[in-house]
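Researcher: Structure prediction, please.
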Amino acid sequence: MAVSFFEDFLAQAREHFTQVLVYEHPFGPLVELECKVVVHLVSLCTQSKPEDFLAIQQVYQVKNILLVHLWQDVWCKQSVLVLNRLRSFCGKNHRVFARKTQVRPLGHLQACQFLTENHLLGYLKQKYHYGLFDSTERLLAVASFSALRLMKSKGAQYRSAELVRFAMAAGVTVVGGLSRLIKHFARHAQPNDIMTYADRDWSLATGLQQVGFQRSSITSPAFFWVDTESCQRFYPHHLPPSITPKLTGLDSHATQTFLQNNGFVQVFNTGNIKMYWYASE
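Model: Predicted structure follows.
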């Protein structure tokens, strides 16, 4: 593992958490925070495979402990957001009850600014955005939903939507916030169900289950290419425009060799948990 990544994370973790324990592991250092969450630090140079990480997850899941796989490129680009989320996991946020907030629709610009500042995956344009505001007009949480889609396989008028993003302001936990936003959207748009994904690198999906989501399936691990200079991730089918013309006509092996010779490294996640919330009959 790159020394700077490990040392930088450890130094900042010790500033934010009172108890930080480090364990050596064949797949990369494990850092336990406040006895509540374990962070697996993953170098871009790792030789591990998705099944290795899934095996570590299973060990901690049996103990009902959240294990986070933190890749070097994610820390490099978004260390502040990473620390904010870890602090939330460890119960260090200021708690606000959702019943003391107001739900309002948001414009794209307002939703974009909030999600860019508070969600690891940033903003993604969707049809519906709703926010929770406190009595001082501070925006505390945002949820983004897709347009409704007809699911004819489930019935002629069956409509489904997707919860695409949910985030809370740094340092704040809105107790019951997601539930309130889900119910508000359901009353307004009247979907039969709402689908969402929980990133297995970061979640056991317990929070979603608490607001009524049910597990449907688990997706396979996905692979990405990281530009080691910018630490930007790209899907294999959506590489930078400056690169794609040079890949024309190359087979998968030649493509991989070209990318590796031009500063790209392949990384992966451990898949997603697909979940559904169903409207009451």
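Model: The mean pLDDT is 95.
Researcher: Thanks, that helps.
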